[in-house]
Amino acid sequence: MLRLTAVLFIASLASAIPAADEPLKGKESKSQTKHMVTIDGKKIEYEATAGTMLLKDEEGKPQASIFYTAYTTPGVEAAQRPITFCFNGGPGSSSVWLHMGAFGPRRMAFSDDGQPLPPPAKLIENEGSLLDLTDLVFIDPVSTGYSRAADEKNARQFHGVQEDLQSVGEFIRLYTTRTDRWKSPKYLAGESYGTTRAAALASHLQSRVGMRLNGILLVSAVLNFGTIRFDDGNDLPYPLFLPSYAATAWYHHKLEPGLQRDLQKTLAEAEAFAGGEYLLALQKGLELSDSERKTVAAKLARLTGLSEEFVLRNDLRIEGQRFMRELLRDRSRTVGRYDSRYLGQDANDAAERPEYDPSYTAVQGTYTEGFNTYIRGELKFESDLPYEILTGRVQPWNYGSATNRYLNVTGSLRSAMSANADLRVFVANGYYDLATPYTATRYTFNHLGSDRKMLERVTMAYYEAGHMMYVHKPSLLKLRKDVVAFLTAKP
Q1: Are 468 and 429 in contact (CB under 8 A)?
Q2: Mean predicted confidence (pLDDT) in 328-354
Q3: Which pTM value belongs to this model?
Q4: N or C terminus of the chain: which is more exposed, having fewer CB within 10 Å?
Q5: Does 249 lie in the same domain as 195?
Q6: Do the beta carbons of residue 281 and residue 292 sit within 8 Å?
Q7: Each residue of 90-140: pLDDT tens digit?
Q8: What is the CATH number of the domain that holds 370?
Q9: How far apart are CA 139 and CA 179, in angstroms?
Q10: First CA to last CA across the chain, in angstroms?
Q11: Of 355, 380, 412, which closes a domain?
């Protein structure tokens, strides 16, 4: 109750801030600064633009102010220089994670394995940045970051699947037009729900705006929400999460010695069991015999590090939060959802689910401190608005035609790829991601359509980290290497 009261107080304080900022007065603002960064041993000069762009109706009345941060390299012909539009997910997330963690020229400093350093946050050059290969524009959707609706009472007109596509798509159209970038190769990069947006946006931009893309970068993807929702009657997520459970148990040394020797062999065994015997057992339901049930429970326990008794009590169906709480209960620890390498500690060991996600709390403070320091200090953009890192202000999210069913934008991506034979897709997956597990993503792309040749334009990459694999330095460097290969590959 105390925490809820504090949140309500902060929300009321934020709403009481006077409308002194340019975005709230229906004006655009911009700060441009010059910088240099070393990437792959080469010094790159670039210009940073932190600013707002107004979205207006056809009568010229402002509807929303979109905050963005753009990094461009001067003196390069636009036709030869790609541009990549980046955003995160939520819904309700700013672009700070891809911006200050993965692709921007500066990043937050963590230990090499992704643990937070003592406050305050420290900013360093990002050796994983893509700025040597492409200009970058990081977009904060309405109500995230510094982006706001012109009339906050009507902000909900931007908070939905289609509403979001229209506003982000309009920003991309307007930015491309104003900066004369129609002639540039164009890419989208999204993370988490940002991958949902990117997949649907590819079709939207092509059909509504007339803009063809060269490629899409998907980090920790979810295109079909039926693959990750543990709902009554939906057995699909259980086998799709199993290999990530096995990876987590392997990382924390909860498996028998034979399974602890080689992660890839363990994952292969888990994938085979999940897609075969386990899947068939779930489909049988009550027709599963007692002997079959006991055999499957034993194999499931062996691959997850859980007890056979726990597996049986859960009817062979291990929901994500229960796994996060149960795996290390004997050590009085929980594991993270975004990254199961991280450990948490609840008030006691009796709960069914964790009290919090330790993998989010490990990064949230660092990114908040670091961005607020960076935007004023280095980019010289000033605003008294609170920068909404990850907000609930967008809820309830309007799922439109997907209300009361699972949102699935796989068809939109397929349509975009069918209409544009040059559109390629890169997908980054973390083995320890318990939010968007890698086998759920693989399942989604294996159901992209009936044309197997379409998969030849999809590149899958895997990392020994979680949802935000870039906080793990070896994975950050591998991610850059993989994306560079994707961007520079000949069509």
Answers
A1: no
A2: 97
A3: 0.94
A4: N
A5: no
A6: yes
A7: 999 999 999 999 999 999 999 999 999 999 999 999 999 999 999 999 999
A8: 3.40.50.1820
A9: 15
A10: 56
A11: 355
